[in-house]
Fold:
Amino acid sequence: MYSKEEIVKSVPQTGFVGQPKGLFTLFFTEFWERFSYYGMRAILLFYMYYSLKDGGLGLDRTQANIIMSIYGSLIYMSGIIGGWIADRITGTRKAIFYGGILIMIGHILLALPLGASALYLSMFFIIIGTGLLKPNVSSVVGDLYAPTDARRDSGFSIFYMGINLGGFTAPLLVGLFQKNWGFHAGFGVAAVGMFVGLVVYLMSQKNLGLAGSVAPNPLSDAEKKTTARNFIIGSFVILALGALAYMTGNASVENFSLLITFLGVMIPIVFITYMYRSPKTNADEKSRLLAYIPLFICAVMFWAIAEQSSTILATFIDTRTDLNLWGFEIPAAWFQSFNPLFIITMAPIFALLWTKLGDTGPSTPRKFAYSLFFAGASFLIMIASIVLTPEGDLVNPLWVVLSIFLLVIGELLLSPVGLSATTKLAPAAFAGQTMALWFLASAAAQAINAQLVRVYELVSETTYFGVLGGLSIVIGLIILFISPIITKAMRGIK
Structure:
């Protein structure tokens, strides 16, 4: 195992817009991985609930929204497995490569006209592959910098811009292919994107030096035997429970969503407790983990709103928004590009702002609190769009664009800052797993959303958007009030 100092020294510290050269490799690897993921996600909901004659699977719309929420939650939950494998077995770099291969297989399955069976099988591959790739890419970004390097936050902002460049271009291209040649053609574009990402990663790994090359906390021989035994037992239990649910008629999407919601809430609690009680976690690291809890809750609230862009908001755009522009029918998938477009244009501004402010800028807890204010405002704008639109008319799409814009400001206050804070607050023995914990905030949010999408059909739209938007603002106020306490518990980490 290498020390952090040895890893940083092995990485060329200049060569990519004033950042370590390895950021180039990770920037473009993540660009193509996100291209494939967001391209697929932009049309997946519509593929599920569009009728068979329109090239879809003909599922009930509410059920399709539940499946999307479960899918999103499981993708982020799988980061636990990916982080653990990287920490204990492969190291982060190998985990990234294997994950990319599995994701590509999943997209290829969607590109083939094999119906619902291919849909669920592809979800399995993409869930496991993303768990291996996504948290570990972010973890390697953190390894490129010394803990006190002032470029860290701006580096994560640049990395985050790469994610969103992929997220911006993918819905436009995939949506265009889907509109003209069908859903499977669109999914095929996503598969090609992941292939290109793997090629870029393999050809430029040397830029990473020693970062991610070895597992920081490898399994001992005794632990390998115990792990293998537990894996076999766990797999058997899962298969047995699945068979039991099927035989008793309880194997429904709705019941499965309840299980996912329970796991989405409980797994982070168990995870934080395990790391806190571990003898490998010292006193300063324990304090930082406690400080991380309110930040995590804040992130869950934010992503509960933000992740509805692929479920409730996507449905609203498809069914309640005027998509006719000068006689041209805008593909609903194209609206998925507004979020990354705004991030691309504003991320450099935020990166420069944090660099210029340095130690005088707002603390991490305060940035998180501000992010919730903007998230709440984005849903309150949706209320205005409904109230100010004459009954029976379709909503002007500019309302939706404004809502997305406000949400993006919140995202730039929370997401890149949260990635950076997680790498700094992580206990040394749980670096990859703590990054997986950050993505569990999205998992928990989407697990909760699996129930909220059912509520959406039972209450008025103004009530739905109003309650969630108001709750976000209230939690933001609480985080703002206790931010000095959180900052103190972070033990020198700003």
